[in-house]
Automatic annotation (TrEMBL):
Residues 31-148 form the Response regulatory domain. Pfam families: Response_reg. It comes from the Bacteria. PANTHER family: TWO-COMPONENT RESPONSE REGULATOR, TWO-COMPONENT RESPONSE REGULATOR ARR22. This is Two-component system chemotaxis response regulator CheY. The modification 4-aspartylphosphate is found at residue 81. InterPro entries: CheY-like_superfamily, Sig_transdc_resp-reg_receiver, ST_Response_Regulator.
Length: 154
């Protein structure tokens, strides 16, 4: 879907040949919150992140559990599922963007379905990128690298 030079953050699971930017140096120190209601998927994401060199990974099983964690701890990045009970990933994203203490945190949305309407809604709410399940460590690394390259370039 397009070439690797496209700036579109919503390209479907496209792997990048771009070199890893400053993310690689910060990887071991970056604090990531994984928000996912399915415990097996949380464990998979945690393991993929660990394989990529990230050491500080916290977990929440939905947006309601994630918000207090975001208020009481420091996080550099949020990876959230779109569809969850109690508070969806989209509702969590909107809460993050509406909070002046949290609005700077980049958010990667995970979804099982790549429906155009959901992607547009998430983009309008301020998501930094999305990835469709299932995905590999290389795909996840590419998304994180692209997000931080854009954030650092702003």
């Amino acid at each position: 879907m397009g070439d690797n030079s496209s700036p579109n953050p919503f390209e479907h699971n496209q792997e990048s040949s771009d070199p890893v930017s400053s993310v690689s140096g910060l990887r071991s120190e970056m604090r990531i919150l994984v928000v996912e209601d399915f415990s097996t998927m949380r464990r998979i994401i945690r393991n993929l992140l660990g394989d990529l060199g990230y050491r500080y990974i916290s977990e929440a099983d939905d947006g309601l559990a994630a918000l207090p964690m975001l208020h009481n701890q420091h996080f550099d990045f949020v990876i959230t599922d779109l569809l969850m009970p109690h508070m969806s990933g989209l509702e969590l994203l909107r809460a993050i963007r509406a909070d002046r203490r949290l609005c700077h945190i980049p958010v990667l949305m995970i979804t099982a379905d790549a429906h155009r309407e959901q992607i547009i809604e998430a983009a309008e709410a301020g998501v930094n990128g999305y990835i469709v399940k299932p995905f590999t460590a290389a795909m996840l690394e590419s998304k994180i690298t692209r997000i931080f390259a854009r954030v650092d370039g702003e």
